[in-house]
Amino acid sequence: YRRLHTKGTRLSKFNQTEIKAMLGSYTKVLFVRDPFHRLIATFLQGMGISPSFSSFIQEVLDSGMHNGSVAWKPLVSLCQPCLIQYDYVVMFGFLRQELGHLLLRAGLPAGSLLPELTDSQVQWTYRWLSEQMFSELSAQQKQQLSRFYRWDLAAFPFPSSFLSE
C-alpha cells in the first residue's frame, strides 16, 4: 500500500476495504501518556500563551474537543483506539522496557538500537509537578478536566493520574 499512501495522506481518504487492508499490513503501535502530564509538558514547553497554569487550563477547556491543539486533545479522539486494533500500546514511564520488548518481537537487537531513555527516572518529578499544578486549579476546572479526558482515562490505565481521583 506504499503506492497509495503518500506523506500527508490521511487514512480517511481511503475506502473501508483499503483501510482494513492497510491497517492489517502494518504493526500498529500507540504511545500514550497521562493526559495531565501531557498538559504540564505542553505548558512548560510554552505552547500555551497563558501566564499561569490555571489560565492555560482554562484555555484548553474553552477550546473544547474540536478546536483544541493536538498537544492536549484527548488521545481517544486522535488515535481511535476503539476502531483500530493496535498491536502494542506503549506507556510513558515504561518506554525503555516496552521498546526493548517491541524491538525483540520485530527480530531486532534491542539494546544497541535504543537511545538513552529517562522517562521512568522523571516519574517522581512529574508526581511533584502534578501535585503543585493540580493545587492551582479550581474545583470546577478539576471536574471539567476529568470530564474532558474521561474517555482517555477509561481506555488506558492511568491509575495514579490526578484526573482520575
TrEMBL record:
Q: Name one GO cellular component term.
A: Golgi membrane
Any Gene Ontology biological process: dermatan sulfate proteoglycan metabolic process
The molecular function terms in GO held by this entry are: sulfotransferase activity
Q: What is its main location?
A: Golgi
Indicate what this protein is called per its UniProt record.
Carbohydrate sulfotransferase
Which PANTHER family does the record cross-reference, listed alphabetically? CARBOHYDRATE SULFOTRANSFERASE
Please tell me the species this chain comes from: Myiagra hebetior
Q: How does it sit in the membrane?
A: Single-pass type II membrane protein
Does the keyword section mention Signal?
Answer: no
Q: Does Transferase show up as a keyword for this record?
A: yes
Compartment annotation: Golgi apparatus membrane
Q: Member of which family?
A: Belongs to the sulfotransferase 2 family.
Please provide an example of a Pfam family that matches this protein in its UniProt record.
Sulfotransfer_2
Which Enzyme Commission numbers does its entry carry? 2.8.2.-
Keyword tags: Carbohydrate metabolism, Glycoprotein, Golgi apparatus, Membrane, Signal-anchor, Transferase, Transmembrane, Transmembrane helix
Taxonomic superkingdom: Eukaryota
